[in-house]
Design goal:
Blueprint: E1 4-9, H1 13-24, H2 26-33, E2 37-43, E3 59-61, H3 64-68, E4 75-78, H4 85-95, E5 99-102, H5 105-122, E6 126-127, H6 138-145, E7 151-157, H7 160-172, H8 176-186, H9 194-197, H10 200-214, E8 224-225, H11 233-241, E9 244-254, E10 259-269, E11 281-288, E12 292-299, H12 303-319, E13 351-361, H13 366-376, E14 381-386, E15 395-402, E16 405-406, H14 407-418, E17 423-432
Parallel strand pairs: 1-2, 1-4, 2-3, 4-5, 5-6, 8-10, 10-17
Antiparallel strand pairs: 7-9, 7-11, 9-10, 11-12, 13-15, 13-16, 13-17, 14-15
Helix pairs in contact: 1-12, 2-12, 4-5, 5-10, 7-8, 13-14
Length: about 425
């Protein structure tokens, strides 16, 4: 049987890693796929740049459209990133009858509905395992391994940069800005780290996971995102005193009112396995009705870790080359006519517990005023830590843990508390999830 010919768009970290693994493990991959898989063409913006992979035997071009339009290419690997050129190339490749493998989470989260519809009409596959959590096979696990379950909720550490920053803040008592600068120097964070530290990258990934977990259309605009740039060393320390760790979590939960889609800093009990996922590693905890909780852990980025997921997709595509669309695994796990546009809860409707940090004037009655406001908004207090002021300071930090309440009530309560003359500055609010 003739080899399957692959065209790679982008020879950066992931593209180079994919070429390396495909060549190194060619025999093993062929045994699994049933056919040889060879990279015959690749594109890159600068052909003179030094590569992490050998390009021997690969025809190189600066024009990715040449490869997309090459009738000899069977599978296109879209590894250039972004959502403009990448989208155009993917749609053109689909129109040309080529199968797609991509690691582009933004492309899938923002344009996946359109891309999958086009792929269905063209009877081709769009595979995207590498778009979420790097080398962790989380897409396959939810879409196929848990297909006999109803997914109740999932929670994931799905951005390694944010996890590295919070780990360093906890373990070494460092400030956010200091660790962010190191993350940029190490190459974990971009020069503009907004996507990582403000939750946008994690939001793209969460939307993909939620779609395959609950059978809903991709709709990134409905994902609530909150970053970690306002987390302080004090918050990390106080969380530890209370038996919690702060993680930047993506959470998707199916409720009787609708679907929760949210990314934000979260206190997690330190005894939970996911609370002990540190550094740049990723993990996703999935709770399903039949199997219960399952945890998926591993490298969320990196040349060969991501290449592992890309190549797994290539093997899957090769195995199904002779199948019609109706006999393949659906792009979003559920059959196209079974995708349900369920209601997505607004942030105000979310019900959870909270960590609050306030700075108060050290005078009688101040704490009573705050507890009165919380009671007025039906918010019960679970625990309070009141720190002694240092030396001759007249202000003291107070930390509260609440019982479950609706976000709208908490927002109103915080607004009222911040208007008290005895409260200095803003109230820090971090959501808390037990993940039980």
């Amino acid at each position: 049987m003739k080899p399957v010919k692959v065209g790679v768009l982008g020879l950066g970290t992931v593209g180079g890693g994919t070429v390396n693994v495909l060549k190194r493990n060619a025999q093993e991959i062929s045994r699994r796929a049933g056919r040889d898989i060879i990279v015959t063409r690749a594109s890159a913006r600068d052909l003179s740049r030094e590569r992490i992979c050998s390009t021997e035997g690969i025809s190189l071009s600066t024009d990715p459209l040449e490869i997309v339009n090459d009738p000899e290419i069977d599978i296109i690997l879209e590894l250039i990133g972004g959502t403009t050129l990448a989208k155009d190339l993917v749609l053109q490749a689909i129109a040309n009858g080529k199968h797609i493998v991509t690691a582009n989470k933004a492309l899938i989260a923002l344009h996946g509905n359109e891309i999958f519809a086009a792929a269905g009409e063209a009877n081709v596959v769009v595979a995207y395992e590498a778009a979420v959590a790097g080398g962790i096979p989380i897409i396959k696990a939810i879409r196929e391994g848990l297909s006999g379950n109803q997914i109740n909720w999932l929670a994931g550490i799905i951005n390694g940069t944010g996890n590295f920053i919070l780990t360093e803040m906890r373990d070494k008592g460092r400030d956010f800005a200091d660790v962010l600068a190191e993350a940029q120097a190490l190459g974990y964070a971009e020069a503009d780290p907004t996507f990582d530290v403000e939750g946008i990258d994690a939001g793209h990934k969460l939307m993909i996971l939620a779609s395959i977990a609950f059978g809903i259309p991709l709709q990134f605009e409905n994902v609530f995102t909150e970053g970690i740039s306002n987390i302080t060393r004090a918050d990390v320390e106080y969380a530890g005193e209370l038996g919690y760790r702060i993680k930047h979590l993506g959470i998707a939960r199916k409720t009787t009112k609708g679907i929760e889609l949210r990314v934000h800093p979260t206190l997690i009990p330190e005894r939970r396995l996911i609370a002990n996922v540190d550094g740049v590693m990723n993990a996703v905890l999935v709770h399903a009705d039949a199997v219960g909780p399952t945890l998926y852990y591993g490298a969320g980025a990196g040349a060969e870790a991501t290449a592992s997921a890309v190549i797994a997709d290539v093997v899957d595509v090769v195995r199904t080359l002779t199948l019609s669309a109706k006999n393949r695994v659906p792009h979003l796990a559920f059959q196209d006519n079974a995708i349900t546009d369920l209601s997505i809860l607004s942030p105000d409707e979310i019900e959870t517990t909270y960590y609050l940090r306030l700075t108060l004037e050290d005078k009688p009655g101040t704490l009573a005023d705050i507890t009165h406001i919380l009671a007025k908004h039906n918010i019960s207090i679970e625990a309070i830590i009141q720190k002694e002021p240092h030396h001759d300071e007249t202000e003291l930090p107070v930390i509260m843990l609440t019982q479950k309440t609706i976000e709208k009530e908490m927002n109103s309560a915080i607004s009222a508390i911040e208007n008290l003359s005895s409260v200095t500055g803003q109230v820090t609010r971090i959501r808390l999830e037990t993940l039980g």
